[in-house]
Amino acid sequence: MKRYIALGVLAITVLVWWQPITIGRTAVTIPEGASAKEIAEYLSEQHVVRDSDEFLFWLRLTGKEKTLKSGIYELDTYKNPLYVISHLTRGGRCDIMVTIPEGLTISQIADILTAEGIVEREAFISLCNDPSFVEKLGIPASSLEGYLFPDTYSFSHHQNDSDVAATFVSNFKRTCDEFSIHDPDSLFLVITLASLVEKEAQVEEERVLIARVFINRLIEGRPLESCATILYALKMLDFEKYHTKQQLLERDLKLDSPYNTYRHEGLPPGPICSPGKSSIKAVITPADANYLYFVSMGNGKHHFSKTYREHLAAKRKYSAKN
Prior knowledge:
The chain is mostly helical. It contains 14 helices and 6 strands.
């Protein structure tokens, strides 16, 4: 009799482990490119699985480490690993797909997210400019300007603003890992310069040339003289007045702002937009050239010059054409 009781208890224990009583559901987001270990730790933190190592063990046992799919899932909490694995390999539901183009500021990204009902605009902007929140995300800056990585994302109405911002930053960090950018000073240099390249370049093949011009000017101790930084400063000063401004006047070049790279040498205080992979790569592997200047030709392309005399001639030439 005792044997049957013991077997019954064992059977009930196995059944409870295999399909434990549901004590709630939670929405989780598995980001694109996340490793099996990252997913396991995240699921454990969200109380979807009881132990990350146990989850990884069953992943390896079933041979499904490489088959987990990104997306948004609603999962029962504290379920057995096989239940979770079966859902993550089928793919999650997506409430909202949103694409963030390269070269946008926090405010512009907030506009897109707000239009889709994902965040509340002012609250999201305030959060992204909260130094304590930025520090929690592991970004060595006072703002997330430049660190909300442009890509296509899937969000749900279950996510709060901090979850949304963290998703952007997680994607950004994976890109940094891809390019082996880990040192905080190097990160600041690369992302800040890449943001300038993103705003100045209109033709893909010119990114490496524009990056080289900025790097050469930094090496020689010259001001970067990026019009994009002044436009950014003007919009920070009065967005309503300057948000459509594209062309600078001579008086704009005298603007009293640390972002005025005509008046101040070195880098601006931080990125002026969120650069994409192409601009980041251009800064890491710029063209091999001695250019110090570039001027718009009016067709999306630029004329690059090595000397100031050549640059002045190019400015006269293309100003006359335009």
